[in-house]
Amino acid sequence: MRTQDMLRWLWRSLTAGRSRNLLSALGVAIGIAAVTTLTGIGEGVRLYLLDNFSQFGSHLVAVTPGKVTTQGISGGIISTVRPLTLEDADSLQRLPGVEQVVPVISGTAELKAGGLLRSSDLLGVNHQAADAWRFSVARGQFLPDDDSKRPRALAVLGSKLAAELFPFKDPLGEFVRVDNRRFRVIGVMAPKGQFLGFDLDDVIYLPAALALAIFDRESLMEIDVVYRPELTDQQINRRIFNHLYRRHGREDFTLYSQQDMLASLDKVLTIIKAAIGGLGGISLLVGAVGIFTIMSIAQQERIPEVGLLTALGANRYLILILFLGEAVTLALAGGVAGLLIVVATQSLLALAVPGLPLVIQPLFLFAALLLSALVGLLAGLLPAWRAMRQDPVQALHGG
């Protein structure tokens, strides 16, 4: 059989049952669109979260009070033998390879300024926080390098907080009251956006020692250590662990490497993305069942035609190729339609939900086409095999 005859036979087969073939292709299209879109959303969420976590740098180790047990409960929540103190943070600064050390205390406080009362997030840090976390100051300066135990009552405002507390004047040099303590504003941060739902622009930055007094706490919530790129996280972890173990006399703290957290987060999000894609795969399975059903019906309807082809000299493998070609073409048509649905859906979502992290990579589109072809191949394999094995004499008599 010539190639032209094969294509004509294939076209006639696809147009013979337009309605049922269209429904089968539609099933594949919906499946491909669901798998590609859901996988794209999963990939977008993965990249979004990784970008949020890595914006603070990858050479960072967080020290928290209390040792995490195998049950995941921090001993620091119940009873910490020795809290993480400002002295601990100052001592870590002297370790070889350490660039910045940031004591962290956080909470919510009521702020008063110019007759306005507002609740906002509060971060108690030191002068190194902006450099360590890669934050930029838009106006003024960040907290100065004061004595960690006796800092001056100075404050730095996030961009959003500054605009709301001082809507009609420059906040620099003005005063803000926090827990009946008066702080002079010396700086306003550049817009930073949100981090996992936490608005970094709606924050007031105070010296850590004064934040501890405001919240009536003894222990820091965290100490962030930024180390030099030439060191590995294992090396810096070992130095920090040995240093704090000597100071505390026991392991009553926990170290979290930023690289370990990013790796663990990437693994979890990859699994979630695969699970989301698997949900969309159910639709694709429905489309495959549709193609299998259509090809099985076509194989039964064309028994005399198969017998005639065989009698005219067509070998069995040609019969196999003809039936498989029909199944694959039908699935590919559905795959192309599915990709058109994906493009339309992406455009609509970009308009309706601009912040939705949807990432459709060209590799996803190519893989979707291959997947649709594979679905057609697998769904048409059994009907094609039956047609190939049909006895020519019986086929000429209608089976």
Quick rundown:
The protein contains 13 helices and 12 strands.
Order of helices and strands: HHEHHEEHEEHEEEEEHEHEHHHHH
Stretches where pLDDT is under 50 for at least 5 consecutive residues are 70-80
Helix count equals 13
Helix-strand makeup class: alpha+beta
Q: Helix share of residues?
A: 40-55%
- Major β-sheet annotation: 6 strands, mixed, barrel
The backbone outline, from C-alpha atoms, is elongated
Membrane topology: Multi-pass membrane protein
Protein name: FtsX-like permease family protein
Family: Belongs to the ABC-4 integral membrane protein family.
InterPro entries: ABC3_permease_C, MacB_PCD, Macrolide_Exporter_MacB
Describe this structure in words.
This protein has 399 residues and is an alpha+beta fold. Helix content is 55%, strand content 18%. A hairpin with a 2-residue loop joins strand 2 and strand 3 (116-125). Helix 2 (18-54) packs antiparallel against helix 9. The two termini are 23 Å apart. The relative contact order is 0.19. Mean pLDDT is 79; it is low at 70-80.
Helix-strand blueprint:
Blueprint: H1 3-16, H2 18-54, E1 60-65, H3 75-78, H4 86-92, E2 98-113, E3 116-125, H5 129-132, E4 137-140, E5 154-157, H6 159-165, E6 175-178, E7 181-189, E8 194-195, E9 198-199, E10 203-207, H7 208-215, E11 222-227, H8 233-248, E12 253-257, H9 258-301, H10 303-311, H11 316-352, H12 362-388, H13 392-396
Parallel strand pairs: 3-10, 5-7
Antiparallel strand pairs: 1-11, 1-12, 2-3, 2-6, 2-11, 4-7, 5-10, 6-7, 8-9
